[in-house]
Amino acid sequence: MSVQIMLGPQSPHSNLKNAIDSLSVNGPVVSITAGWRDSEAEIDELQAAIGSPIEDLNLYHLAEELFSREPKLHALHRERQDKLLELQRLYRIRLTPGMTAARKLLRDKAESDLLRLEQRAAISQVRSLDRHHLRRISAIHQEFDRRRAEVLIPSATSLVQSLQKKLAESGLVLIAGGHVSVLVNRIRLFRLVDMLAQKPIIAWSAGAMVLGERIVLFHDDAPQGKRDAEVLDAGLGIVRNVIPLPQAKSRLDWSSRNRMALFSRRFAPAKCCTLDNGSIIHLQDDRMTYASLCSVITRSGMKKPVVTR
Amino acid sequence: MNPIVESLYREGNPDAEAVDKFIQQNQFPLVEPGHVTFVYRGQAQAVHLRSWISGLDTAQPLVPLEASDLWALTIELPDKSRFEYKFEVEENGVKQLVLDDLNGVLAHDPFGANSVCQGYGYERPGWTLHDPTARSGSLDTLKIASRSFRDTREIQIYLPAQFRRNRTYPLLIVHDGLDYLRYADLKNVLDNLIHRFEIPAMIVALTQSPDRLIEYTGDERQARFLCEELLPAIAAKFPLLDDSNARGLAGASLGGVAALHAASRYPKLFGQLLLQSGSFAFSDLGRHKKDPVFDPVVRFVNEYRNTPYPIAEKIFMSCGIYESMIYENRSLLPVLQDQGMQIFFEEARDAHNWENWRDRLRQGLSWLFPGPLWMVYE
Question: Which stretches within chain B are classed as H helix?
Answer without folding.
Answer: 3-8, 16-25, 177-184, 186-195, 212-215, 220-224, 231-237, 254-265, 295-306, 325-337, 354-359, 361-368
